[in-house]
Amino acid sequence: MAWTYLFFAGIFEIGWAIGLKYTDGFTKPMPTILTIASMIVSLGLLGLALKTLPVGTAYAIWTGIGTVGTAMLGIWLLGEPATALRLACIGLIVSGIVGLKLVA
């Protein structure tokens, strides 16, 4: 169950990272509320995952999911560049996440 918590914690981290862009400096009420709610859920789920998973592994995977998801949504939603080098670096992060999961 801890891995499920961790996965969804990462998904909600993507939500708040992308949400920050839409808050316009916390001046838009609805995106701000959703972003803060996503932060709370993400940290809460991470906390549940940490009850049984090693902190270094869980934290690295949580931030990795957030990093990869945020970078991909930045490309898809916000028109950020999708250069070969950028995509290769994202691939390296994914391989690190998979590696950590395999050795945990």
Q: Can you offer a commentary on this structure?
A:
The protein is mainly alpha-helical. The chain has one domain. The protein is 84% helix and 0% strand. It has 4 helices and no strands. Helix 1 runs antiparallel to helix 2, helix 1 packs across helix 3 and helix 3 packs antiparallel against helix 4. The chain is flat.
Put the structure in a nutshell:
The chain contains four helices and no strands. By secondary structure, the protein is mostly helical.
**First CA to last CA: what distance?**
14 Å
Q: Radius of gyration, rounded?
A: 14 Å
Instruction: Classify the oligomer.
Output: single chain
**N-to-C series of helices and strands:** HHHH
Q: In terms of per-residue confidence, which ranges show pLDDT below 50 for 5 or more consecutive residues?
A: none
Strand content: under 5%
Nearest-integer average pLDDT: 96
Shape: flat
Put simply, the count of helices is: 4
What structural class results from the helix and strand content? Answer: mainly alpha
What structural keywords apply?
single chain, 104 residues, mainly alpha, flat, EmrE-like
How is the topology of this model organized?
Blueprint: H1 2-23, H2 29-49, H3 55-78, H4 84-103
Helix pairs in contact: 1-2, 1-3, 3-4
InterPro entries: EmrE-like (IPR037185), Small_drug/metabolite_transptr (IPR000390), Small_multidrug_res (IPR045324)
Family: Belongs to the drug/metabolite transporter (DMT) superfamily. Small multidrug resistance (SMR) (TC 2.A.7.1) family. Gdx/SugE subfamily.
Keywords: Cell membrane, Membrane, Transmembrane, Transmembrane helix, Transport
